[in-house]
Description:
By secondary structure, chain A is of the alpha+beta class. Chain A has five helices and six strands, in the order E-E-E-H-E-E-E-H-H-H-H. In chain A, strands 3-2-6-4-5 form a five-stranded mixed β-sheet, sandwiched between helices. Chain A is elongated, with a radius of gyration of 17 Å. Chain B has eleven helices and 14 strands. In chain B, helix 10 (about 225-240) crosses helix 11. The interface of A and B includes residues 27, 73 and 122 of A. Bound molecules: FE2/S2 (inorganic) cluster (2 copies). One FE2/S2 (inorganic) cluster binds near residues 46, 48, 53 and 56 of chain A.
Amino acid sequence: MTRLSADGRHPVRFKLNGRPVEAEAEPRMLLSDFLRQQIGATGTHVGCEHGVCGACTVIVDGMLTRSCLTLAAQVDGCEIQTVEGLAPSPDRLGILQQAFRRNHALQCGFCTAGILMSLDHYLRRHPAPSEADIRDLLSGHLCRCTGYTPIVKAALEAAAELATTTQEKSDA
Amino acid sequence: MKPAAFDYVRAESVNEVLEGLSKEGGNARVLAGGQSLMAMLNMRLAKPRLLIDIMRLKELNRIEEQAGVVTIGAGVRQAALLAWPELARTLPLLALALPWVGHVQTRSRGTICGSLAHADPSAEMPLALIALGGEVHLRNARRRRRVAASEFFLGMMATARAEDELIEAVSFPSPGGGCAFREVARRHGDFAIVACAAVATPKGVRLAVGGVADVPMARDWPRLDRSALDDALNGFAYELNARDDVHATARYRRDLVRIIGRDLVREVLQ
Lengths: 172, 270
Ligand code: FES
Ligand code: FES
């Protein structure tokens, strides 16, 4: 049995986008705060902190996960993917990210990291989604800028492009 | 919106969970998928001194089918049940209702038993349990017991689980005949304004309604002709004691119960 006491800080280790990371956390520390404050991975955003807005969505062991509804202590030893892992290299955007840019699928960008994680996860498993599928997936996210239509368009465009190419395109 | 401090235990056996619960009782909470509990902690609506994480216990992560009854362990996530190949055959009502539980992004983590433990009056899993007449399997350090669905939900977010008990599993009997489910919410994935489930029974039909009363409620009816059914639905709609709230008026809820109820009853009796 592992018991972490409330007043102590305890080491938490996991793989973040393929790289091992480690930092200390109190048991009550949320994964969202751990990523942002302890690791410095601020790509994951925090909106509502009660599971409603989807801004904090990341992938834990292959599962879409609200990082605000997850404790850092819970993911010790897990594999985590965040928006920082989406681009193929620091100066190139992935196909989905390029489609977001072309379609103005973001304005303020607050919701974007979470939506990208959901779409990336979904398109890998469902390469030929319908508009209804995408809208159903997006029901788990709030965007107060775009009205969702450009996001749906970008997602469908990215799906089509991913289906025709296995090679990542550079936007440079 | 940060939780108050608590000790965290990553349980490595069910006995550890039961020990923790028997020692700390009401000061301990079991953490499974966290999709309801973590929100409660963040909002400090719950302030346990101890959280017992059960998600690394393989023995709780089981779906078993035996003699027409499907038993789902406390660690089974909603997405896992939805992806179980036997679901549509054994529990078609859950195949219909599960896509309405939260969103893809919460079903991936949330568990079936966690939703029952939370007992939100508008939640789909408690409604399905009432509609199918399932049982909740409870266990403390000394004994196991099973509680029928109709006796498990005591009120809004209140259940028959004692403070030292773990919900070990839930079992749903496979219905012999047809079933139907429908829900009205402001947006897909939001809390239900009204959710209804109908299941064919040997004598007729059972209609269960969630989102209106403090607990999901069901009525059993024989095959009724049109006007008798309308009367029964109207009576039931009033017995649910709907209230006005920010989401909908009581009158609108009663309307939904009458309209959806009639459609579903007809659908399963066809
Ligand atoms: S910040 Fe996690 S869902 Fe809103
Ligand atoms: S781009 Fe501003 S909230 Fe979505």
